[in-house]
Specification:
The structure is a homodimer. By secondary structure, chain A is α/β, with parallel strands linked by helices. Chain A folds into two domains: 138 residues, Alpha-Beta Complex (Aspartate Aminotransferase, domain 1); 220 residues, Type I PLP-dependent aspartate aminotransferase-like (Major domain) (Aspartate Aminotransferase, domain 2). Chain A contains 13 helices and 13 strands. In chain A, strands 2-8-7-6-5-3-4 form a seven-stranded mixed beta sheet, sandwiched between helices. A four-stranded antiparallel beta sheet of chain A has the order 9-10-13-12. In chain A, 52% of the residues are buried. At the A-B interface, helix 1, helix 2, helix 3, helix 5 and helix 9 of A face helix 1, helix 2, helix 3, helix 5 and helix 9 of B.
Chain lengths: 372, 372
Amino acid sequence: MIKNLVRRNILDIKPYEPGKPIEELKRELNILDIVKMASNENPLGPSKKAIRAMRKAISTVNRYPDGSCYCLKEALSKKLNVSPENLIIGNGSNEIIELVTRTFLDKDEEVIMSEPSFLIYNIASRISDGMPVMVPLTDFKADLNKIRDSIGPRTKLILIDNPNNPTGRSVGEAEVEGFLEKLPDNIIVVFDEAYNEFVEREDFPDTKRYIGRKNIIILRTFSKAHGLSGLRIGYGIASKEAVQFMNRARQPFNVNSVAQAAAIASLRDEEHIANSRLLISEGKRFLYNNLDSMGLRYVKSDTNFILVNAGRSAKAVFEEMLKKGVIVRSMEAYKLDDYIRVTIGTMAENRRFVKTLKEVLTKNDRSSTKSV
Amino acid sequence: MIKNLVRRNILDIKPYEPGKPIEELKRELNILDIVKMASNENPLGPSKKAIRAMRKAISTVNRYPDGSCYCLKEALSKKLNVSPENLIIGNGSNEIIELVTRTFLDKDEEVIMSEPSFLIYNIASRISDGMPVMVPLTDFKADLNKIRDSIGPRTKLILIDNPNNPTGRSVGEAEVEGFLEKLPDNIIVVFDEAYNEFVEREDFPDTKRYIGRKNIIILRTFSKAHGLSGLRIGYGIASKEAVQFMNRARQPFNVNSVAQAAAIASLRDEEHIANSRLLISEGKRFLYNNLDSMGLRYVKSDTNFILVNAGRSAKAVFEEMLKKGVIVRSMEAYKLDDYIRVTIGTMAENRRFVKTLKEVLTKNDRSSTKSV
């Protein structure tokens, strides 16, 4: 029985359930016309500059990638105004979360995180033998006061998803400043800023400026606004020392060469990011208006997705929409049983979402009326 | 001081030092005509079928990859005659090593491995709080008797690099059969078969047939014969139960979509593999002949690389060759101070290697004569 050889904490872990891939739905339901609004991807696709860079990179994939990601760090360094030594590149920012827990988290040390927030935080902490401490959101955003009150003698890490996934709300500069001022020196705070490109509020914190003053690690990704989720590339910004230690826990060739080339090109394509932002901003207004007119509640979002209260079992709504070829995300895994999360798509996708949601809710209304 | 917050075992780890990337050498030395024979890559490049598949895949990298690697597992399943449930795909087979230690290795449990063998085994074991137990090679290959004698009450894993890197020698079926027969049930044996496509001996063990009877995990990669090292993709073959548990320790999107597409196409291109094998086989004979005529000792190899005794400090030889644009690998990190490891290249690259090695050794002979 190999089960007896498995580490105790692995036995307790329930794997993360990702959004349904389009190909899988095609296989299962034999539907061809499918839209995926489930994984907060960029509906415009990757930048054309990135596509050109990838086309060039694929001919030399017989060579190992540059394990130090030299050129990408140079490019990011200029963009972010930090030293290349402040940067660590990962196989998606997910991997940076793992590198943080593997480098810093000792057995039974506590990791404070919001609930709900990105599920991988909890899983990664437990794989590293840490103890997740869940702090409820207030008004759908991280409650930094409650988080501070949860700090105890065994706290090692605090993970702040800003803006928060799956709610879309963020905490502002004043809150973060006050929180960090009182942060003890033996605690590391991770700000996961995967959606930062979509934030429109002016007082979104510039967390980089706390590096060196406090133990903080910032996570960013090329998976969202940059449209490179399929390639797996994200990064961390931290003190040089923190980066050096995390590098010891890192596989030497963790980031593939096509991703490195695409990310560098993508950073240069500011127009693509601007277009993506504009699309999301317009789509957001369109969806808000339609949800309003349907009488549905939702959370105002600083990201490219919207958390919508479907007013009934989200699982049923999710499944009905799936049958009609629209993939959204049901939120029971996040303990939000009545909520779906929809990624803002192209305007055509947004219209299809609204139409399908209306059909599904109307049908459900009728069937519930019938069954009364 | 963030150092005080780092886990004890991370502080002790010296990161793996990879072979020098061509781009880095170009930057450093301003040499344009460089050949890299340092990382056991396929000098023919990726398969043309894989290039076509990559070209198609790059346009949709804005979508997350299929986290289950459904299509690749189907393709591998047919090729290997195992169930898709016996397969786990990784960000290179390096990641499968990490998944094994993370899933099965408890604090202070022992991991037996050969010395020298692939350095990542030692690093991955220590990151997971395990204790590496190093067993010397005999005649440059894994000594299964000594390994069995090293099994103790705390042994959890045995890692067998077959053929061994960096020596190139393999253990055969009879040895493996005898070893596994007496293997206790509370130990997991990992066979790393990264170079299996290059093995010419007829009695190379078909380890797959032990799955289910013994706790074994087989590692394979697309980085070597398949020429996809830049994309990071490898896999493990194990019992369904072992795969299920390792999946809990796996990031949901650990394998990028371009790699998945390329790997599937690459499996279909048997001609490319046959050509690569032929090239290596011919190159091996050419290099053996030339090393013989230079009076240098070397280890007969079952892989696409050769361990060569340079008869003097390999570090100096490595550095002299580097200056002349030929990248090989110096073996001090493997405690083989007089040895270099050379990857078999194209015939042009092999000739360049021989010519450059002759120049470097002759020059060294002269300077040592002078200094007497």
